[in-house]
Structure formats: structure tokens, C-alpha cells
Amino acid sequence: MDTLHNPQPAHYDVIIIGGGQAGLSLSYHLVQAGIHHVVLERDEIFHAWKKERWDSFCLVTPNWQCKLPGYEYAGVDPHGFMVKSEIIKFVEGFAETFNPPVRAGVAVTSLMQGSGGFLLHTSQGDLTAAQVCIATGGYHKPITPRMAERLPSRLVQLHANQYRNPAQLPEGAVLVVGTGQSGCQIAEDLHLAGRKVHLAVGSAPRVSRFYRGRDIVDWLQDMGHYDLAITDHPMQESVRGKSNHYVTGRDGGRDIDLRKFANEGMSLHGHLTTVAGERVEFAADLAVNLDHADKVNDRIKDSIDAYIAAQNINAPLESRYMPVWQPAAANPPLDLAAAGISSIVWCVGYQPDYAWVHVPVFTGRGTASHLRGVTAVPGLYFLGLPWLHTWGSGRFAAIARDAAHLADYMINAVQRVEQRQRAAV
After folding, report:
1. Burial code of 279-291, b = ≥16 C-beta within 10 A, e = fewer?
2. More reliable by pLDDT, 25 or 386
3. In angstroms, rounded to a whole number, what is the distance separating the alpha carbons of residues 253 and 215?
4. What is the four-CA torsion angle of 49, 52, 56, 59, rounded to 10 degrees?
5. Neighbours of 125 (CB within 10 A)
6. Are 232 and 391 spatial neighbours (Cβ–Cβ below 8 Å)?
7. CATH topology match: 10-140+352-424 vs 143-346
């Protein structure tokens, strides 16, 4: 074979795909263990934090939960919420504590099983690895419903990952579709800027920021919710499909109360069902969705009350939330032009895209099948997914723990190979 014209692909003990906080957390452990590996990042490290978040973005969990391997939040406001620039500084500071072998600007276009491990086709040539970890997260393709195609061309349409600030949108009212964390926070961002907002409200639950003298996250941490494994959760695998509760860390943290926004002039509608040119229709479920969000919030408070009583904790009493606004029974269609709506922000989520992964490790729905990140195919792992192991797996709260778990698998596998090689000499 002419090796000059047919070079063998570079080989690594481990290849990590994705240079965000998950991929680099795993790299940290491999660097400490001296494992020959590389981190492939198609853009730049921490690309999502830098390029796919709006300007006023902030964490919804307190700073004290930011714990990456060997690197924790050490600022003066552990119970505050880092804004976008502070988050970027935090994750970049983590990367500077070690020397991760990152190759930025390298996109993996195909991953398949090969002789002795895996073969990766990339934008910069082929590579092979004994083990591979896919640490690209679970939010790959922004979802824009097909009904968007029927909207008038005059409307500016953005997905949540394209939204940056109110000034980015043309003058006029804005229709925000979806009330997960992104939808509610973007609607609030526009509302606080004085923009007229129409919000299509879905079934996502909400939670209060503070209750009985503490941030609710503090209570839930003490109650063990962030350490509960998915295998022990009453909902088991189905919990992965649950929407996160909407709340915000903005301006020191507060509730997101859609009823309060309605009193202040925001127009609330049920979830969007039909588009016909300038005419859009909504389901008659606004009252149900608002009531459901409040009931979930009350159940969380009930569990905190029970914990306080069981632990005999001296915590201040607090009255329960009383709805400050109720929707009208009528649910008329909306004429976009007559309402002065010039733009729409779609906040209806993302879907995974593993079309480039040609290894049989997926469910019938195209989601990764694994147990705490370990797949049925030896040597292939996932990291950084929501509920990979616990509620905190997709956030800063538990990435370090998940990365350490997978690193142990990988290091042990490398050591077994080295032992066999020594025995064969």
C-alpha cells in the first residue's frame, strides 16, 4: 500500500465529539489519567453559550450549582444567577485550568463501527478510536412547525436560538409561540422592553423562585431531587420528555407569572392550532394550562412543607399564590395584521439529530438508548443529555459527576487493553 497517498487515519484511545461543558468535563478526567484522546468541536468551544443565547440570558439555577471537575463557582454571589457574559467567563475559566486537546472547526459527518473500535469521517479527514463519547447535547435541530410555511412572507420569523434582543425585531407586536423556559423568558424580555406581546401558552409547568425563606432549588437540593436517578424516578424513562418548569434568574431571580403579564397588557392565548394566512387560531386551553402550571407549583410547595415539618425546620410561613388574572371564556381567532404583529418567535423546542451516527444505539423515536450514558455497543457513550442519570445531568449541577462515571469506564478499558498488550509481549 502506498502510505503517502493512502495514509492511515490517526487513532486515539478516546474521541469526544462536542466541545461544550460536557465534552470538556470528560476531557478533564482523561487528561488527568494520561489517556490519549481528542475533543472534536465543529464550531468553537462553548459555541452554544456564545452564539445561541439571547443577550439577557441568565441561569435559572443558582450559581452554587455550577460545579465542573476541579472548578466551582467562587464568586461573591453563590445564590445569584450568572448572566450570559459571566457564564462564558466561567466555562472559559474552567477550560484554562487544564490543556484540553481540542480540535475546533472539525465536524463529524459520520460515525460507524470499524476494526477495533470506531471510524469517524470528519470535515478534516478520517479518524479512528477505540472509544467514542457523543457529548453534543440533545438540542440539535430547532423545531419550527410546518404551519409556519403558511404565514405571510411579510412576517419575520425566528426560532428561540436566533433571538437576541427586542431591537432585532421590526417595530410592531410580536407573537411568541411556546411557554417553556425559553418562550417565557423571551416573552418577558420583549414585555419589559415595552413591546406588545401575544403569547401562545402551552402546557409547561411553572415553579416559584423563592418559598419559605429560600430559593426553591435550595429546598429541592436538600430534599434529594437532584440526586434521584432516573431508574428510581416514579416516571422512569418517560420523565425525559417532561418540560422544565418556567422561572427566571433575571434581576436576582423571580417568578414568571403569566397572569401578571396579562394584567400588564400581554395578550395570552391557548396553544397555536391553525394558520391560514393572516388568520391564526388557538385551542381553548388557556385557562387549563394556566391552572395546571399553578397546580404543579402548589404541589412542589406541598412537598417542601412536608419536608420542613418532617425535619422540624424553623422556616417562615408563607401564604399561597392567588391567581391575579383569569382568561375570558371566548377564544377568538387572531388577525395578525389587525393586531399589528410583525414578527413571530418560535419557542417550541428542539429535536435530536443523530443521522450521522451509524451505530445501533437508538430507540424507535431516534433518541439515544443508554444506561447512565453507557450504550449497549461497547466503547460508545453519551454525555450531557437531560436526565442522562439525574435531573441535573443536562445542567452544570451534575455534569462533573456524570463525566467522572464515564471516565472510569474509559480509563478501565484502556488499562485492560494495555495489560493484554503487555501480556502478549
Report:
1. ebbbbebbbebbe
2. 25
3. 9
4. -40
5. 11
6. no
7. yes
Lowest mean pLDDT among 59-63, 237-241, 305-309: 237-241
Gap between the Cα atoms of 189 and 193, Å rounded: 6
**Cell numbers 395584521: residue:** 337
Is domain 143-346 in CATH 3.50.50.60, yes or no?
A: yes
For 10-140+352-424, CATH number?
3.50.50.60
Domain residue spans of the chain: 10-140+352-424, 143-346
C-alpha cell, 57: 440570558
Strand pairing partners for 142?
350
CA 257 to chain centre: 22
Number of other CB atoms surrounding residue 379 within 10 Å: 20
Report CA dihedral (172, 173, 175, 179) to the nearest 10 degrees.
Answer: 130
Q: Which of 10-14, 170-174, 239-243, 413-417 has the lowest mean pLDDT?
A: 239-243
- Whether 6 has a pLDDT exceeding 60, the answer reads no
Residue 99, judged by CB atoms within 10 A of its CB (0-12, 13-18, 19+), counts as exposed
- HSE of 40, CA atoms in CB hemisphere, 13 A: 25
Q: Taking the alpha carbons of 189, 194, 196, 201 in that order, is the dihedral positive or negative? A: positive
Nearest by Cα to 384 from 121, 43, 242, 370: 370
Q: Which residues is 424 bridged to in the sheet?
A: none
**Among residues 157, 111, 150, 102, which one has the least CA distance to residue 134?**
111
64 to 6, 82, 218, 269, 409: CA distances (angstroms)? 51, 10, 10, 36, 28
Is 346's pLDDT higher than 70?
Answer: yes
- List the grid coordinates of 244: 422544565
Calculate the alpha carbon distances from 131 to 39, 138, 142, 259 in Å.
Answer: 12, 20, 29, 50
Q: What is the pLDDT of residues 195-216, one digit of tens each?
A: 999 999 999 999 999 999 999 9
How high is the mean pLDDT of the chain?
94
243 secondary structure, DSSP code: P
- The stretch 134-153 carries a mean pLDDT of 93
How far, CA to CA in Å, does 335 sit from each of 124, 151, 190, 197, 210?
50, 11, 20, 14, 39
Q: What is the pLDDT of residues 149-160, one digit of tens each?
A: 999 999 999 999
Asked if 65 and 78 count as a contact pair (C-beta separation under 8 A), the reply is: no
pTM score over 0.70: yes
